[in-house]
Amino acid sequence: MRWNDKRYHTLNYELRKKFGCKVFKLSLDGGFTCPNRDGTIGNRGCLFCSEEGSGEFAAPKELDIKEQINDQIKFLAPKWKTGRYIAYFQNFTNTYGPIGKLQRIYNEALECEGIVGIAIATRPDCLTEEVLNLLEELNKKTYLWIELGLQTIHEDTARLIRRGYDIYCFEKAVENLRKRGIDIVTHLIIGLPNESKEEILKSVKYIANKGIQGVKLHLMHILKGTDLYNYYKVNPFPLLEKDEYISIIADALELLPPEMVIHRVTGDGAKDLLVGPRWSLHKLAVISGIDRELKDRDSYQGKNYNK
Ligand code: SF4
Questions:
Q1: pTM score > 0.90 for this model?
Q2: Which of 30, 181, 224, 297 is the most exposed place for a label (fewest CB within 10 A)?
């Protein structure tokens, strides 16, 4: 199995197939908060969440959506002439707000020249009927996907990382989105405290058969300023070594269905905030390590996928 030069189904491959050119994601900050931070569910957020709501690379929230988009396009346009972009609402919980605001900012993004799709990161417990109806409408107008941060299927770990919802809530959200034909991208974190390789791969197997269209596999990394860093100082748990991580990712890719789009295979911590694993700063080395591992195994995404 090949997806151009890759042995797994990358987002780049998928977007080129769909739009016929390279498409860039523009990370946006819609000025949201999160129920897991504003006191509705919790005050401190998920254990790994940073001050920026897990969106360190988004444009400044002081700018409105059109300004954020145009600023990033100005930066990309001289080098990349394709002019096609996905507006990615990344920071915090991007369906957690008054419906009028959601409607306004999604539409503002859609009106910008070159925007061919919208990606919205949110939580499964922030998809009310009203929001789902809005997303259904949006899905008719543009290429849309919704990102849900599951991270793990193991309830003990979910409690430890203070995720704030259970697996049934996730399943309900998946059902509601799929009923409306909306694509879903799920996040998993690889290397959470106390999780064995077998447990990690159980989470991978779980999402393989849930009718989900894409996945982001994140390396668990520790950033300064997060509660995870404080936890790690008191309870130093082993961080994954690079070779170990590469091997787990190759196993995971083998377990996922070939049609599932792989949006990410590594971590992306800001250099000055990253405590560990520091090898993750060499992102290209990790990605080429995964390619090499699959080649050495003569393997590919879906090789061990079981319906
Ligand atoms: S759901 Fe996202 S924004 Fe909210 S606390 Fe967790 S990581 Fe942070």
A1: yes
A2: 181
